[in-house]
Write a structure and sequence with these properties.
By secondary structure, this protein is α+β, with helices and mostly antiparallel strands. It contains 20 helices and 21 strands. It is 41% helix and 18% strand.
C-alpha cells in the first residue's frame, strides 16, 4: 500500500489532538482528548509531563482505530504544541518536575527587574521578542533562585512539542523559532551567548537542546513509541515549530508577494504580520512582541499577543451560566451563545469600553504587565447582557488594533482563524476596528495542518512550501469581507480613548495587586 496520509499532532493548552490529512491537505479524521493542568498558588500553572505523553499516545491510537490500516498509510508525523513554558528532564529522559506552562506568572517580578535594567534593550535587539513571565528563560531564572536542586538534576529543557518529539523518536531537540525567540538571535537563528548572559543563565546553557529544521530533517518513530501509539516503527517524525507559527502558516499568513496579517482568535489573541526578511521586522521602543522565523527561508512572523482572547468571552458566558445554574437551569456555553450574534449586531457600537485582560497572568502585548486586569468603562443602567458582550468583542478587536499598530501598521488584509472567527458579529467588528478586509480560513485544525505541511515538504510530497500552500491553504480561504465604513469611523474615533484608559489604569492594577498580596 502506498502511504497517502500525514498526521499532525497539536498538543494545546485545552486539548491534545491528532489529525489525519490526505497528502493534498484534506482533513480526514480527528481524535482528541482534553488536556489537564493545575493552577498553583502564586500564579503557577503546571502540567504532568508523563500524562501529556500518555494522552498524546491515546490520540494516536484513537486515530488508528478510525482509519483502516492507518499505520501503513502514514507518510510522516508532524508535531506542534503550546509554546513557551519549561519541560525539564534528566539524563535518562525522565521528568524532574511538573512542566511549567506559558500561563505561569511566577516569574513576573523577575521580568520587571530585567526589563527595568540597562541590558533589556540589548536582549530585545537580539531576540526581537519582549521578555515575559511565560518564557522559558524567565522561568529558569525563577527556578535557579527558588529551586536550584531541580536544575541540578535536569539535563535538558524542553518545550511541550519537544517533549513529545523526544518520546516519539528518542531525540532531544527544539525548533529554530522556539530556540531563537527565547535564547537566540533572530538574524542568525542560533543561540546567542549575550542573550543567555543577560538572563544570568550561562551555567544552564547545557540544558538547551540542538535546534533542527523540520522542513529538511526528520527522525524515526522508535519501537517503544510504535507499541504505545499504534503506528509503525521507523515512520518519519518531523519536529514542527511551536503552535503559533504552525497555526498562522495553516491559516494563510504566508502569501508570497503580499503583506497580509493573520489573527488567531483563540484562548490567546495572536496578531501576526508577515515579514519578508530581517530588514522588514519592526522593533518598538517598549521592547514587546514576538519575532519567529517561519519554516520558509527568509520569512518571519512578527507577532503581538494579548494573553486572553476568547477567555474573555467564556468568562462572560459562564457568568450567565452561573446565574441560571443558581436557579436550577443548566445551559452549556454553546446554548448561551446561540443567537447572541444577532443581539450583539443590533446593540449600539462603542458605548462601553472593555479591556480584555482577564488572564491571571495579566498582559503581554502590546505592553507587558502581569498585573493588568480586565474592566468595563461606561456602564449605565440601560446596558444589558448583549451590550456587555458587544463591548467584549470590541475590546478584543481594539486589542488587535493596538497590537498591529505597535508592529508598524495594519495590513490591508487580515486572515482570521480560531473558533470565534466563525462569529459573524466578531468578524464585522474586527474588520471595522482594523479598517481592513478580513478573510476567514475554513481550516479547522490550522496548527496541526501547519505541522503536517512541514512534514509534507520534508518528505518531498511538495518541492517547497509555496506549492504546499497552494493545495493546503488557499482553497480554504473564504470570501473577502470589507469593513463597514460608518462603523470603522466610530471605532477610529474611540480607539485613542481605549489606549489612554489602559495606560491610566496601570496604577490601579498595581494597587489591587498590592492589596491582594497584603490579604
Amino acid at each position: 500500500m502506498t502511504p497517502d496520509m500525514i498526521i499532525g499532532i497539536d498538543a494545546g493548552t485545552s486539548v491534545i489532538k491528532a489529525i489525519a490529512f490526505s497528502s493534498r491537505g484534506e482533513q480526514i479524521a480527528v481524535h482528541a482528548v482534553p488536556n489537564v493542568y493545575e493552577t498553583i498558588a502564586g500564579g503557577g500553572a503546571e502540567q504532568g509531563m508523563a500524562r501529556t505523553w500518555a494522552d498524546t499516545a491515546v490520540t494516536l491510537r484513537g486515530l488508528c482505530e478510525k482509519i483502516p490500516d492507518l499505520a501503513r498509510r502514514v507518510i510522516a508525523v508532524g508535531v506542534t504544541g503550546q509554546g513557551d513554558g519549561t519541560w525539564l528532564v534528566d539524563a535518562a529522559g525522565e521528568p524532574v518536575a511538573p512542566a511549567w506552562l506559558w500561563l505561569d506568572a511566577r516569574a513576573a517580578a523577575i521580568v520587571d527587574e530585567i526589563r527595568s535594567g540597562p541590558r533589556a534593550k540589548a536582549h530585545y535587539r537580539h531576540t526581537a521578542t519582549g521578555l515575559a513571565a511565560c518564557q522559558q528563560g524567565s522561568q529558569l531564572i525563577w527556578l535557579s533562585r527558588h529551586h536550584p536542586e531541580v536544575l541540578r538534576v535536569a539535563a535538558t529543557a524542553f518545550h511541550c512539542k519537544d517533549w513529545l518529539y523526544f518520546n516519539l523518536t528518542g531525540v532531544r531537540a527544539t525548533d529554530p523559532a522556539e530556540g531563537t525567540f527565547t535564547f537566540g538571535d533572530f538574524r542568525s537563528l542560533e543561540y546567542c551567548d549575550e542573550v543567555i548572559d543577560i538572563l544570568g543563565l550561562a551555567e544552564f546553557r547545557r540544558l538547551l537542546p540542538p535546534m533542527v529544521e523540520g522542513t529538511t530533517h526528520a527522525d524515526r518513530l522508535t519501537h517503544d513509541a510504535a507499541r504505545v501509539t499504534g503506528l509503525l516503527a521507523g515512520t518519519p517524525v518531523v519536529l514542527g515549530y511551536l503552535d503559533v507559527p504552525c497555526t498562522v502558516l495553516g491559516a494563510g499568513l504566508y502569501d508570497r508577494g503580499t503583506a497580509v496579517g493573520c489573527t488567531i482568535v483563540g484562548s490567546t489573541g495572536m496578531h501576526t504580520r508577515l515579514a519578508h526578511g530581517v530588514d522588514d521586522i519592526v522593533l518598538n521602543e517598549d521592547c514587546t512582541g514576538f519575532t519567529m522565523p517561519l519554516p520558509i527561508p527568509g520569512m518571519y512572523a512578527q507577532m503581538q499577543s494579548n494573553l486572553a482572547g476568547t477567555l474573555n468571552i467564556d468568562w462572560l458566558i459562564d457568568l450567565a451560566r452561573d446565574v441560571l445554574g443558581s436557579n436550577g437551569i443548566s445551559r452549556s456555553r454553546a446554548e448561551i451563545i446561540t443567537g447572541l450574534d444577532a443581539r450583539i449586531l443590533v446593540a449600539p457600537a462603542a458605548e462601553l469600553l472593555f479591556h480584555p485582560y482577564i488572564s491571571e497572568a495579566g498582559e503581554r502585548g502590546p505592553f507587558i504587565d502581569a498585573r493588568a486586569r480586565a474592566s468595563f468603562i461606561g456602564l449605565a443602567t440601560r446596558h444589558g447582557y448583549a451590550d456587555m458582550m458587544r463591548a467584549v468583542y470590541e475590546g478584543l478587536a481594539f486589542a488587535a488594533r493596538d497590537c498591529y499598530l505597535t508592529m508598524g501598521c495594519i495590513p490591508a488584509e487580515v486572515r482570521l482563524t480560531g473558533g470565534a472567527a466563525r462569529s459573524r458579529a466578531l468578524r464585522a467588528i474586527v474588520a471595522a476596528t482594523l479598517d481592513a478586509r478580513v478573510r476567514t480560513s475554513a481550516r479547522e485544525e490550522a496548527g496541526a495542518a501547519g505541522a503536517a505541511m512541514m512534514a509534507a515538504v520534508c518528505c518531498r510530497v511538495y518541492p517547497d512550501m509555496d506549492a504546499c500552500v497552494g493545495d493546503w491553504v488557499n482553497p480554504l480561504l473564504g470570501a473577502t469581507e470589507a469593513p463597514d465604513p460608518r462603523l470603522a469611523e466610530i471605532y477610529a474615533g474611540i480607539f485613542p480613548a481605549y489606549v489612554e484608559a489602559r495606560r491610566a489604569l496601570a496604577p490601579v492594577w498595581h494597587a489591587l495587586a498590592r492589596q491582594a498580596g497584603a490579604g
